[in-house]
Amino acid sequence: MFEPPQRSVDHDVEASMRLFERAHVGEAAALEPRRPRKVLVVLDGSAQDRFSIAVAGALRDRFGCELAVLDARERIGGNDLAEQTADGLKARALAKPAGDSFQQILDGVTAAASDLVIVPCPYGRELDAVGPDSTGTVIDVLLARSPVPLFVVRKPFEPADSVVSRVLLVLIGENRAAPVAAAWAAGLVALSGRLQLQLVLEEEFYENVRELMQSLNPEVDLSPESLGEALTQAHARLHAALQKTAASGDFSYQFQTHLEGEAALVPLEDAGTPALLVVALERGDHASEGHVHDRIRHASNPVLVVPG
Amino acid sequence: MPVDTLFAETHAPASPGVMVLFALGMLLTYVGVAWERFHKTVAALVGATVLLAAALALDLFPYKHIYEILAKDLNIFGVIIGTGILVDITGKSGLFHFLAMLIVRATGGRAGALYLAICGLTFAFVALLTIVPAMLILSSLVLVICRSLDYDPKPFLLSVAICANSGAIVTFASGLPNIMIGTAAGIPYVHFLMVSAPYAVVSLLIALVVLRFAFRRSLAWKQTPAEQAALAARIGEFDPWALVENRWILLRSGLILGLTVVGFALAQVLGVGMDFIAMCGGTAALLFAGKSVEDTIGKVNWTVILFFLGLFLIIGCVEATGALTWLADRVVSLSGGRMTALIPLMGGFAAVASAIVDNIPVAATLIPIVQSVSGSETIAAEPLWWALIIGCNLGGNGTPIGSISCVIALYTLKKEAHVTVGWGEFIRLGGTIMLLQTIGAIGYLLVLERLGLIPGL
Questions:
Q1: Residue B208, exposed/middle/buried by CB under 10 A (0-12, 13-18, 19+)?
Q2: Does the A31-156 domain belong in CATH 3.40.50.620?
Q3: Which of A221, B79, B207, B220 is spaced 20 to 30 A from B248 at the CA atom?
């Protein structure tokens, strides 16, 4: 007999109990993976178009989806870019309406009955010129109004087929759109690819919760780890559903919780790792809207925004 | 004069006064080890320092002999470090949490099936992971499941504590006394599967019969179909897959652990020691540990390693006086060298002493005695090694402090369920089980010995 210290036993038993309690999620069914059937490819004449076209081609080859191409630039008369691109993609070019770019895109979604839009960001400008300072008006309006998920292209990469070999579903808290976003992530991840559910505990969120807790009870000192545990527990059902989806699909799956600023989050920003980020957008939820904007602005990865 | 020659000349038995002095030093250290207010490791290191200083002052042996004492047991440290790393990483993978939840869920929450599943899991997990990590998993599982199904955790936790000690005799790597004795005696891993593992199952059955009787009114053993349906619905709310963060890590951990167990079994054939296999397993696990390497190395039980360091030096000092050989001679003369007396004597003493004191110093002290007793060609060492292994592990059932499994279970029960189990209550239950198991073990070894079924070393 050589007993570990009581504090160590307390800590380990409690950690193990929390882990078992994570399994108390009810009967979580596997998700039905969502895959695009009709995709609208929006062009803006920037270098990012090359990547948008490659992604569209890869989606068509993999899912057999119909493609429609739209040149939504304002004050551009002809429709040559859309027609030439459509020829190359064996897609149809949408007629070019007048009006604001965002309205052209929203009308294009309706006209093509699309369930996914590939759109460059910032729209109509080179990414290098704007950087992380703005997503642009077009993206802002689409985030507010688009009825379908947006595949936001942030940087021109060469081969597009590898973009879904690694898919990161990033969540920061309760989000009604999370299950749909997870279904899209599971539907898009490449065969034998890797899907990761990453929960991020934002520092500001932690500070706010801790301050509130301490105002209710000054004795309580909430640690980032315990709030991270709570975040993990809150997403246990989604995790179990994704785990089952991965088991029935042909991709690997991993679940992680990180504190904001941890080294593990760095690959999200890594230009050399063009993994697809998937974020859930709950409209009217300021935290969710802020998170989606922030992710798009700071990512050099493509970002799939799935509205709830 | 060369140091070795000097030692050889001074290695004759010391005077009775010196023997008594060193034996007293050892006993005082053991009192310190058993005394809660004194840290075990500090007690062992203080005892080692004092006895070493005395040995050098009395010219009992040259300084270089200290390294010879430690070199003899160096492989134990390799096993402890390697298995410690492997168990920590495997535990973190969630593999055992997942398996435990999967099996518990399959019981449908029915009291009888759940109880048997928990006891069986305890036995298997201790055999694979050693007592402490297995107890942490099982204790927390019992608390979570009992809260969810409205069962009293007391019968479950006490049963887990007692069944754990049966699991501890399954393999070479299931417990520290096994590693110490197995290493000192050079017992191959497969011999454990041939001799101690079958009795581990028997001792588990003995424990289950007594526990089932003792808890006959504590659990609703018979449940109506409606109750069973309600329980099945409640336990169905637990989804084991929610515990798996990464399926690949789970498989990888299981694979490394499995290969290490196979490596242990083949160590003798491969011509390597258990320490080498354990370090290979630990290193393979560390290769995939990622950023948690530092954390995992920090989880190696350095307290136990330092404790062993002190303990081995103390035993080495006392051994050098000839006191242990003298004691072994008395044991031989008392038993007349008959196995029918030596097995009960060794097994019984090891069990009772382990119930009172820590089983590690008991094993460490009895190892050189068994070596001395079996020094003559007429007395076989093998039955005595097995009596020591089984006695040291099952003795832990005798008292609330006899085994780490009992300490953890009773502490957890008090802290999480606010239930206190007194010494009297525990001794009535655990002591009865220990007595039956020890008598059974003695009978089992005597039969094996008589039939010539104990493999030679």
A1: buried
A2: yes
A3: B79
